[in-house]
TrEMBL record:
Subcellular compartments: Cell inner membrane
Family of this protein: Belongs to the TRAP transporter small permease family.
The name this protein goes by in its record: TRAP transporter small permease protein
Tripartite ATP-independent periplasmic transporters DctQ component domain location: 30-191
Transmembrane intervals: 54-70, 91-113, 167-187
Subunit structure comment from the entry: The complex comprises the extracytoplasmic solute receptor protein and the two transmembrane proteins.
Biological role: Part of the tripartite ATP-independent periplasmic (TRAP) transport system.
Keywords linked to the UniProt accession: Cell inner membrane, Cell membrane, Membrane, Transmembrane, Transmembrane helix, Transport
Membrane topology: Multi-pass membrane protein
């Protein structure tokens, strides 16, 4: 069991470390969009796409960087108490409180999946069945068959009117990766409590 837990920790840490480091470069994309927005407003006709693009990039930066932030331990803690505790006490507290974070993330993930299904034109009450059917159709009938399953695509109510589903998919992926990283952190705490030290990825 310990070996399987260590393998899981290494695999999730490696994946989220790589994604987190790639996500950091979205700051430069965001800067470029905002610079163009300022330039176009000053010297050209204002671009309709810059504000929402900046918002979408910021959402991707925040959500996809979340798992790496959890891995680094840079999420918010009450260091007034936490900083003076022993590593074993920290592991105990983390192993218990991680369930509160997991509960929140699971609820967030369910809402994100439901919202993503809505943005693809599904108005029913079981989005997982919709996505399972969509995936099965894609495997059997290809992209054209999957397109027939998709209904009215939700768009932003702004002048630019972009489709909303891509950023909602990013939200689903980011929250799912945060859930997987939280499980890795729980396993890491169990390793520390059992007297071992989990391997670094």
């Amino acid at each position: 069991m310990h070996r399987a837990m260590k393998r899981y920790i290494r695999a999730i840490d490696r994946m989220n470390r790589w994604l987190g480091r790639m996500t950091m470069y979205l700051v430069f994309v965001l800067m470029g969009v905002l610079l163009w927005s300022s330039f176009s407003k000053s010297f050209l006709a204002p671009a309709a796409w810059t504000l929402e693009t900046a918002q979408f990039v910021m959402v991707a930066y925040y959500v996809l960087g979340g798992p790496y932030s959890i891995q680094l331990g840079s999420n918010v803690r009450m260091d007034l108490f936490y900083g003076d505790w022993s590593p074993r006490t920290k592991a105990w507290v983390d192993a218990v409180t991680i369930f509160f974070l997991l509960y929140y993330l699971v609820i967030l993930f369910l809402g994100a999946v439901s919202s993503t299904a809505y943005s693809l034109g599904y108005f029913g009450s079981d989005p997982f069945v919709f996505f399972g059917d969509l995936f099965a159709t894609f495997l059997t009938d290809g992209l054209s068959g999957a397109r027939e399953k998709i209904g009215f695509l939700e768009r932003s109510p702004t002048a630019w009117r972009p489709q909303i589903w891509p950023i909602k998919v990013v939200l689903c992926v980011g929250v799912l990766l945060m859930i997987l990283q939280c499980i890795a952190e729980f396993f890491r705490d169990l390793e520390r409590l059992s007297g071992g030290e989990p391997d670094a990825a």
